[in-house]
Design a protein that fits this description.
alpha/beta; 15 helices; 6-stranded mixed sheet
Length: 483
Amino acid sequence: MIHGLRAGDRLHVLGVAGTAMASLAGLLTRLGYRVSGSDQGAYPPMSTVLEREGIEVRTPFGPGNLPGDCRAVIVGNAISRGNPELEAALDRRLPLVSFPETLRELVLRRRVPVVVAGTHGKTTTTSLLAWILRTSGLDAGFLVGGVATDLGGSFALGAAGQPFVVEGDEYDSAYWDKGPKFLHYLPEVAVIGNVEFDHADIYSDFAAVRRQFSFLARLPPRRGLLLLGADSPAAAELAEAAHTTVRTFSVAGGEGPAADWVAAIQPSGPSGSRLRATFRGEVRRSLHGRFWGRAAARNVLAAAAAAEWLGVEWEAVREAVRDFSGVERRLQQLAASPDGRVLVVRDFAHHPTAVEAVLEAGAQRWPGARLVAVFEPRSFTARSAVFQDRFAGAFRKADQVLLASPAGESRGRRLPGTASLDLDRLASDLGSAGIPADVLTDHPAVLATVEQLARGDRGTVFLFLSNGHFGGLPEQAATLVQE
């Protein structure tokens, strides 16, 4: 459906304002295609990216948005039947292609695909690996589901024949293709850091998730690499599916089997952490950078191991890790009070494992501070009851927890076909464990509580946790504490 396209042809993107879709539109523009797009709305930062790339965006969706000379329509996975623009495209019998199909055929086939997958840590590992490759002198391309400050954005085309690092999303591809995106990406190198249950709206159980990752493990060619996180039993087991070189990585003290790459975390503090890395017993010079906690250490080790396989000298890896400043919405400090005693931080964490990792990292980055977790269960999985007990365990690493209903939703709204996360029960379970927890039904109540807690004598870090924008609440709290 996408063969025969040439530079100068018109492509139209449905759902263009999302991070991944806007990035793909930018890549296509740099390949010489004439790109337009549409969405229900377009907002910064991606609207700014689209404007910079000269991509016309039409809102809201409507049949009249489709250009008369359109050669193909790229359909985001958030678009479903009934969308008026999609229905018009079907009526006109225009070729429809998904995001991953387009990326594979127009970008990845001419490059060396490096696919970073796993339930957690994909965005940071992808960004760091791309940063290492580019600062080492390679003209590597990348596409990441976030914004890495050092990279200047979420995508770059890079040169043909060079590595292209892409975040391998296990979410579905399009309304007609419910398989994961990462199976389309032709990996020469596949990194699978961990495998856990997530995306309850797509996968019925953990076995279904594991099956898709096993398919990914079978894709790298004989000359390629499968790099597996040995600390995750389900990821380590994927070695059995491989027809390529397999290497494993682990943080010392983990419960997994012995690994090829092992990192021992040396003393950490507010300025960052240091890792002592070894490869099959051979000691490498330590890696030091602005990362905290075991999960972050695994991300760093995975990126370093993949980079070395791709030919980057270890000293270049060390310099890149040292200079990497992270990714937006990953333990990102938004504001500090004038006296520096109160901080507002936001993070993408919405799974119990990620919540635990963020709280562990926060305790190392801000030792002695009171950690107040402000949580919005926004994803389908977080809002369902599947992790009811796991969340109660994860939040015990906080000093206090504020549980907020997702923006625009009433308290107690139930999910179709499944039991919902019981916020009152979660607060009660935390209270029984000695962790003060409150359920707050609206954003003014959250802000009022933040203001009250910020007046205390103890230094406080407010960690806003959501895989969405939390209705702008983190930014409002940032303004509040700076006043």
